[in-house]
Specification:
- This protein has 7 helices and 9 strands; from the N terminus they run αββββααββαβαβαβα.
- It has about 280 residues and is of the alpha/beta class.
- Helix 1 crosses helix 3.
- The longest helix is centred in the C-terminal third of the chain and has 25 residues.
- The radius of gyration is 18 Å and the shape is globular.
- The structure holds hypoxanthine.
Length: about 280
């Protein structure tokens, strides 16, 4: 019996391949909330709205545009997702992660993922960038279901989800550019609610440094199909651990803070791409 999931991946990949004009992107980028402006720096860009791509959902989240962009950045051909799909939008995990398998099918070997996140770590400040060194996942695992053997193994190793060599390159780049970076563990929740104070204390105790509602599904699927991953969080707000404070977590402010920090992240991604 034909696997509908594979058909969906193949159809989308064929559609995109027909628009590559001989280009072969080996680097993929996922742009999180408020970080879509990296798209403006891509040269010779072909912009494909998700709604034109067969089988692609349309992203509905605030601060997410909904385009696949193929072009040049840091002297290399890249493919970027300007906006991603989240589990909280109601999409099944297969669709949340469809673009990653499509990227793999068109030849992507390295994935740079970004997101806006809350700072659980009390030494983090709004506007900080955090290298994701590991994650804790509480979103349903996107690999649940019959294994797609053509993409990867049933039980993928997750000892090193984030590539050590890419992390080291970014640490050197940041030093050169004079940007201080945090390095920590990303705690993924389904959302769409922000955390309660008790949850903030719990996630912190569990070892989380930043909390967000995305990224890990894409990372798991990328690792399943052998793509090397680098991840970065923009700390857009602190996480409140007290019911007594007058703190309010605000989606609009998250997008605004991400937009401010995006310039630093764009510079780092561009330098990293040059070195890949
Ligand atoms: N919690 C969860 N997701 C987020 C946050 C947060 O505080 N900030 C940005 N994305």
């Amino acid at each position: 019996m034909a696997d509908e999931r594979i058909e969906r991946i193949k159809n989308a990949a064929e559609f995109i391949k027909a628009r590559l004009d001989g280009r072969k992107p080996e680097i993929g980028i996922v742009l999180g909330s408020g970080l879509g402006k990296l798209g403006d720096y891509i040269e010779d860009a072909t912009v494909i709205p998700y709604k034109q791509i067969p089988g692609f959902p349309v992203s509905t989240a605030t601060g997410h545009k909904g385009n696949l962009i193929i072009g040049n950045l840091g002297g290399k051909t890249i493919v970027a997702m300007q906006g991603r799909f989240h589990y909280y939008e109601g999409y099944p995990m297969e669709l949340v992660t469809l673009p990653i398998r499509v990227m793999s099918s068109i030849g992507v070997k390295v994935l740079l993922v970004s997101n806006a996140a809350g700072g659980l770590n009390q030494s983090y400040k709004v506007g900080d960038l955090m290298i994701i060194k590991d994650h804790i996942n509480t979103i349903p695992n996107p690999l649940i279901g019959p294994n797609m053997n053509d993409f990867g193994p049933r039980f993928p190793d997750m000892t090193r989800p984030y590539d050590f060599e890419l992390i080291e390159k970014v640490e050197n780049i940041a030093r050169r550019l004079g940007h201080e970076l945090q390095k920590g563990v990303y705690f993924a929740t389904t959302g769409p609610t922000y955390e309660t104070p008790a949850e903030v204390r719990f996630y912190r105790m569990a070892g989380g440094d930043a909390v967000g509602m995305s990224t890990v599904p894409e990372v798991i699927v990328a690792r399943h199909c052998g793509i090397r991953v680098f991840g970065m969080s923009v700390i857009t707000n602190s996480s409140n651990d007290s019911t007594k404070s007058d703190f309010v977590n605000d989606g609009e402010d998250v997008v605004k803070q991400a937009d401010i920090a995006a310039t630093k992240m764009i510079a780092i991604f561009t330098e990293l791409i040059k070195e890949i």
